[in-house]
From TrEMBL:
One of its GO terms (molecular function) is ATP binding. This is 7-cyano-7-deazaguanine synthase. Its cofactor is Zn(2+). It comes from Oceanisphaera psychrotolerans. Zn(2+) binds at residues 185, 193, 196, 199. NCBIfam families: 7-cyano-7-deazaguanine synthase QueC. Its EC number is 6.3.4.20. The keyword RNA-binding does not apply. Pathway: Purine metabolism; 7-cyano-7-deazaguanine biosynthesis. One of its GO terms (biological process) is tRNA queuosine(34) biosynthetic process.
Amino acid sequence: MKALLICSGGFDSVTLAHRLAAEQSLGALLTFDYGQRHKKEIDAARHCAERLKVPHLVMDIGHIGRQLSGSALTDDIEVPHGHYSEENMKVTVVPNRNAIMLTIAFGVAAARGLDTVALAVHGGDHFIYPDCRPDFIRLFGEMQARALDGVAEVALFAPYVDADKTEIARDAARFEVPVAETWSCYEGGEVHCGRCGTCVERIEAMALAGVEDPTPYLDKEYWLEAVARVKKCTP
């Protein structure tokens, strides 16, 4: 397998990059600039590609992103704080984002002679993001097999789709990922906020996995409050 990995520069995709590199299956990284407010992740993806010595492709789809309005990740909308299981996190959805990125990635992989598109979606994304769910991943892979029929054979590899982020945290330790050099926070400040959904999920996963998190956060204790709130509301 030689994979084109969609790499945002975040904890999940950088961990998968290191896993694929260790398995000698990483062909290149593909990062999308879709007008997201947390652009520091693009630099993190570039550093990852340099560290692993693979090509880094940056695709500017900002003109598309500008049409996908209504998300806290692209518009001037306040980023919600809390756990991904809370209803307020729906404002972080960018409509059809993964479907758009994957469609482009399959074309790029075919053109570059790579046989796999890799994606680090995981079980923690299922509640809020429909294009991270197992059925979507399965059906999208089938659709692309037909789209490229007779042109190229490109598989879709999403090893964490049925797992939670704790497994990714364990892989981060196993493959010696420099976690502090990844960027997940939706706020896009100088350091991770510790309060947005992706920060809360990241800290929680590392804690549950028993893995040290060297990332500096403005608030490293808020996640406990967010998790407790979700547990209290769960029947």
